[in-house]
Amino acid sequence: MGRQRFSASCRSLVVVGVTLASVPGTTIGLDAQSLKDLQTPDTPLVLKAQGSFFVGGEKVEQTKGELGDLGPGGHITVNQMYVRYMVPQGGDGNVPVVMVHGATLTGKSWETTPDGRMGWDEYFVRKGHPVYVPDQVGRGRSGFNQAVFNDARAGSVTPANLPRWLRFSDEVVWPNFRIGPEPGHPFPDSQFPVAALDELAKQGVPDVSFGGLPTPNPTFKALSDLATQLNGAVLMGHSQSGSFPLEAALLNPAAAKALVLVEPGRCPDTYTAGQIKTLATIPILVVFGDHRDTPTGISIRPSWQLSFESCQTLIGRIKEAGGHAEMLSPADRGIHGNSHMIMQDKNNLQIADLILQWIEERVTKRGNK
Amino acid sequence: MGRQRFSASCRSLVVVGVTLASVPGTTIGLDAQSLKDLQTPDTPLVLKAQGSFFVGGEKVEQTKGELGDLGPGGHITVNQMYVRYMVPQGGDGNVPVVMVHGATLTGKSWETTPDGRMGWDEYFVRKGHPVYVPDQVGRGRSGFNQAVFNDARAGSVTPANLPRWLRFSDEVVWPNFRIGPEPGHPFPDSQFPVAALDELAKQGVPDVSFGGLPTPNPTFKALSDLATQLNGAVLMGHSQSGSFPLEAALLNPAAAKALVLVEPGRCPDTYTAGQIKTLATIPILVVFGDHRDTPTGISIRPSWQLSFESCQTLIGRIKEAGGHAEMLSPADRGIHGNSHMIMQDKNNLQIADLILQWIEERVTKRGNK
């Protein structure tokens, strides 16, 4: 389309930098990202199939009040997982890749970047892989179970017992997503498209998964079921969901062709020897960006270096058990400045190529597809 | 992919019919829609571009508690509108179509049908139109403003003042979406893929728009802004959003190339003579399915025939003002059994063809693209 050109906008950042400092407490209208910021690839995308579907879900009965009081009580479905997919023409035989997003985000993480460049979803498809992008249970198009909030409204649930809704402020995103050490001050070598930071802010949605979901998180089983239905898939998680591929793989190891853990919030230290033995049968890649020592401003995880180290420990345990787990730290290869949102960084396709090369070597070449 | 075949499943319905009647009050695990139910078209889909972006949004400052208590207070963006798009190769010059979903639903409405057939989003693209599918502000990947719920949790908002979250029960969907007069009893001529009704149930998400959004609904302006950025578009709404194209068109009539109102909850009777004069400059098509006399079981709209009649009245006013507004009632053409979810009915592409033909005549042939 004529209005979509290779012209990343640099307007948004200026607006943010000024407004955050000058008019706190007010509501500020934001310019929409103009369609003209969206970049059109040089060659068409040829898809054998695309669309969406759901995995999982449970039927529950709720009262009139729990359903919002506009109709009678009855049954609804909760805990289902929405999945959008694209299958490239000629890509049937290649291993599918499932990409799961992090906290306060949705599957949008993997789509068009904040500055209008191609996301990993399309790039992996163009490299021949069917790609499946879910919204975690409880968020986005997967919905959530609203009953407890309507119950609080009606007085039958104590408000203090409501689950919290989490969102990260722009001020927290700067150090926590490692755009820069503090708001308005990007790292000189930052790979994040800082001018489009307001577009990242729009990707935020309320996240009820800190106390408002069943245990274990239904997304674990949904991911495992999806991989099973696909007759095997590479499971890729990010941040909050960075460890989800491990949990899904433990439910059905045969369906997990490989695991890619992108900037996991933590790598679990609680796995038994038996679980480690299972994980040692699956190729695992952990990916971490740069500037991990930056203080996050969040008490529960003072720095991402701690997350990195927890994954190094897990990698060590898996290797001791004879497995193939490894760390990809682009900074160690001279690629500096990658942020927590590495799939949206300016060099996102360079990082994708490193992951694709690993999948080629660890999965495709071994006939494990 | 080998696992995606033309084999619509008939298993889900049986499960629902039995479980609703036999084990009320229990939680019932649902089988996922198997990937094998997804149908693969005979020819590839060739896209010049695809991806997603946001329209609108406001920056607001919130407290630590309002943001979920895991970090300090600060600014977030709310009231933005997520939009996914596909542009067909060679379709740049054709008028774009924006498809907006109804209450308790998301943009998923227009994607793959519950029984795995092609949705209107892909079909309109295959017919040459760029297609843009938003999630309404407050739902799905557009997120919502969570502050008031966290405030209630902290005790600073009275629970009775919380906005309600609406979902429709399966029992309400049967008559309200006109699948059949009561649960488990489809109309003999129903066009809805009844065997896949549980997959429609999974499309439901909590809807805060009945009292929990700013006034006017931010989606009106976001739709108008989107149409403006597109240099003109056909705006299509459904059910709750059936009247949204009218509201968006009144904000910028020049950008509204045509309006398609699919099963509007109501057509407004409050427009001034000046507003009607403006709407008379835009081609308008209203689409209604069959069995409109079915009692819905919802007090605020006892039957869809009342909605139909409100639109006949609006059409009359616009025609009196010299405009081109018309009703498409497939039943009047001998096409019987269409439901409220007409874009998902078994004959959904037949209905789409009627709308595409109207767009061709009212927009394309008149050079108004």
Summarize the structure.
Chain A has 369 residues and is of the alpha/beta class.
Fraction of residues in helix of chain A: 25-40%
Which chains have the largest interface? Answer: A-B, 114 and 114 residues
**Overall pLDDT of chain A, averaged?**
91
- Summed up, the helix count of chain A is 10
Return the string of H and E elements of chain A: HEEEEHEHHHHEHEHEHEH
Major sheet of chain A, described briefly? Answer: 8 strands, mixed
Shape of chain A: globular
Radius of gyration of chain A: 21 Å
Low-confidence stretches of chain A: 1-27
The overall strand count of chain A is 9
Oligomer: homodimer
End-to-end CA span of chain A? 37 Å
Strand order of the largest sheet of chain A: 2-3-5-4-6-7-8-9
SSE blueprint:
The structure is a homodimer of 369-residue chains.
Chain A: H1 11-22, E1 28-29, E2 45-62, E3 74-88, E4 97-99, H2 120-126, E5 131-134, H3 147-154, H4 170-176, H5 197-202, H6 218-229, E6 233-238, H7 244-251, E7 256-262, H8 273-279, E8 284-287, H9 304-320, E9 325-328, H10 348-364
Parallel strand pairs in A: 4-5, 4-6, 6-7, 7-8, 8-9
Antiparallel strand pairs in A: 2-3, 3-5
Helix pairs in contact in A: 6-7
